[in-house]
Amino acid sequence: MKRYVYITPEDYETAEKNGINRNTLEYRVRYGGFDIDRAITEPVAKREPWTPEQRAKLKESQLGESTVRERMKKWGISRDEALAIPKFTPEETFEQLKKGFEEKHCVFSREQRQKMKENGIKHATAYARWKYRGYTKEEAVTIPTQTHRQIKERTIFNKFERRAQ
To answer: Could you report the per-residue pLDDT of 117-146, keeping only the tens digit for each?
Structure first.
């Protein structure tokens, strides 16, 4: 049976013998979702130490350690490759963020958004047409919207047409 609640003094001693300090043990159990047996036996992950050359390159490039670690994690590259990439200017950083946001969250391409603007179609309208009404993306951004009066005239005409039959 897995234990999650009370860490006994023996558990603290076992963890200490395994090279796990008290704070790490408590964090693992209380916040990390570890059961006590796993928390006292699983070794702590060790980071690769920085070489003096890497430290010098880090200082020269004016990057932070966290920036290098983030690049390594995000792009799956080595520490030396992450250090070789120069520091981004604020404009480059903004463009990267904008590009990533568009790739992740934007349904319509830039050209399609430009067509929507030219045709006076709101983004919400085009999105609803595509998502819920069965339009293709091209139809959603090119077919002009109708006013309430146009819709009303069309429905009144259809009512008269139905009665005549």
So the answer is: 999 999 899 989 988 988 899 999 999 888
Contacts 24+ apart (CB under 8 A), 139-142: 141/108, 141/112, 141/113, 141/115, 141/116, 142/115
Mean of the per-residue pLDDT values for the chain? 85
DSSP 8-state symbol, 62: T
Give CA 70 to chain center in angstroms: 14
Q: Which position has the token pair 């830039």?
A: 110
Other CB atoms within 10 A of residue 87 CB: 11
Using alpha carbons only, how large is the chain's radius of gyration in Å? Answer: 30
pTM of the model: 0.41
